[in-house]
Amino acid sequence: MKVLVTGASGFLGGHLALALARKGDRVRVLVRRDPPAWLAREPGIEPVRGDLTRPDDVSAAAEGCARLYHIAALYRSAKEKDSVYRDVNVGGTSNVIAAGRRHGVERVVHCSTVGVHGDLEKIPADETAPFRPHDVYQRTKLEGELLARAAAEEGLPVTIFRPAAIYGPGDTRFLKLFKAIHEGRFRMFGSGEVFYHMTYVSDLVDGIILCGENPVAVGETYILAGPRYTTINELAAVVARALERPVPRGRLPLGPLKLATRVCEAVCRPLRIDPPLHRRRLDFFTVNRAFSIEKARRELGYDPQVDLLEGCRLTARWYFDNRLLKSRTENGREEGRPRLSG
Q: Cα separations (Å) of 256 from 47, 135, 277, 282?
């Protein structure tokens, strides 16, 4: 089967494209520039140059494809104008939907985010939780999801999934957390008792493929997340264990951090500089994110396998192997990865 994946130059889209190709699909990937070498050399992957915000480019890429996996998005870049988020996250979704209609595809799989639910009132939240987006990324992702939902109600075979925080080999989003704990610089802001839900990338890819292939998924929305959620305190302790570092101690008040984020954003954003601190990073310490995956388990057979400690160990190993984290010196030589005992 020929399929299209948008966002394949990124972390999740790249993993998805590889998994689809390795199970036998012919995978076309829409890329603005040359795709990463690790993706381009994979048999069964066909790069197509184009821009998600140009309708003709998306339509040309989708021609002849039976399924469209729409993963691409502008994600939490604090330096970008709101209009850029809307062009990509809303306009790009509109273009994918139009291409799906034009070419009569059998499935459009749309990637939303659990962020559309904002700070949760009920723990754990499921797909019926109210929408409470509170930044431009979440608002535009919700707008894109609502476009996909409207298309489904008009007869286009659409499945929507909302992933929780994604991590694993190839990801750099959580590198700052791992690095701070590895170097002994991490400090908890606030109580650390807010909830967070991690999702290992291979588990998520399995869920996305189920969304694309299971007939029951047409017209449905699913939360896809890892086997369990944790507190931020527990997450920091698990990362420390994966790195074989002491569990971080000490905590700082949230008030000064909130003030610093406002100052950083006010100074950096007009200059198109990504601020070192911004409100979306503050959310890590303040916003509850804990979700139920029972609907996906029941209807799709979604069954995430990677426990948080195992996933953090695999992620840490990738960071060390790629010299994103500096190894300890032992016996006069530098080790390329952490020891994984315990």
A: 47, 21, 12, 11
